[in-house]
């Protein structure tokens, strides 16, 4: 610091910028030596550092992709576990729904019990439960279970002529097949047997 007239010292400011802000040109240091270009060893070291940086970046990208896949897999598993739990609970309530249906068929579903039954059915519908199986539906072995079989001139294809027990689905998942009585057309060809050979 430089002494002042009043006894206080003034700070010394040194401008070490390599480019002169007024002219925009490179300043030459006070000793008169210009900076030397980087040694060849420095450029080799820079190449090695760039290779390491590229490798670390690729590692980070791989880790990021693995983490993203992991999160998606965990979310899928969480949804599957929830659906399985809901399906299990719904399966346990199917006999109750059967009892409610029988009571409705016999005219015994009235008063407060009717309101409770409607509320229960509405709640189960919100959870994704849907009933299927109507008299006259074409027989589909993937969703129907045939408990009785007959022939009838009134049908043109295998048809559910009576629904003995409703089937239930939760979304696309089959919880229980509909149990039906099936009728086939009378002119259906007889089943061939191996004895004809």
Instruction: Count up the helices.
Output: 2
Quote the distance from N terminus to C terminus. Answer: 121 Å
User: Can you tell me the residue ranges where pLDDT is under 50 for at least 5 consecutive residues?
Assistant: none
Quickly give the structural class.
alpha+beta
Based on CA atoms alone, the radius of gyration comes out at 42 Å
Main sheet attributes: strand count, strand direction, barrel closure: 3 strands, antiparallel
Number of strands: 8
Give the proportion of residues in helices: 40-55%
Spatial strand arrangement across the major sheet: 3-6-7
Summarize model confidence as the mean pLDDT.
Answer: 84
The shape, in one word, is elongated
Q: What is the H-and-E element order?
A: EEHHEEEEEE
Oligomeric organization of the protein chains? single chain
Strand content: 15-25%
GO cellular component, one term: cytoplasm
Region (Disordered): 1-49
Keywords: Chaperone, Coiled coil, Cytoplasm, Stress response
Family: Belongs to the GrpE family.
């Amino acid at each position: 610091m430089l002494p002042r007239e009043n006894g206080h010292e003034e700070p010394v400011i040194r401008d070490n910028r390599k480019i002169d802000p007024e002219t925009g040109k490179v300043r030459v240091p006070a000793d008169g030596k210009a900076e030397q270009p980087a040694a060849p060893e420095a450029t080799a070291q820079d190449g090695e550092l760039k290779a390491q940086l590229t490798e670390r970046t690729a590692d980070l990208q791989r880790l990021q992709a693995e983490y993203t896949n992991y999160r998606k897999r965990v979310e899928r598993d969480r949804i599957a576990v929830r659906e399985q739990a809901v399906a299990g609970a719904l399966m346990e309530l199917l006999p109750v729904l059967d009892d409610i249906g029988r009571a409705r068929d016999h005219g015994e579903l009235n008063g407060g019990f009717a309101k409770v039954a409607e509320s229960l059915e509405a709640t189960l519908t919100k959870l994704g439960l849907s009933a299927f199986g109507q008299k006259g539906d074409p027989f589909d072995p993937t969703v129907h279970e045939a408990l009785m079989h007959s022939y009838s001139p009134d049908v043109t294809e295998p048809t559910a002529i009576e629904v003995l027990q409703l089937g239930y689905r939760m979304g696309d998942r089959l919880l229980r097949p509909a149990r039906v009585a099936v009728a086939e057309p009378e002119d259906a060809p007889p089943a061939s047997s191996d004895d004809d050979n």
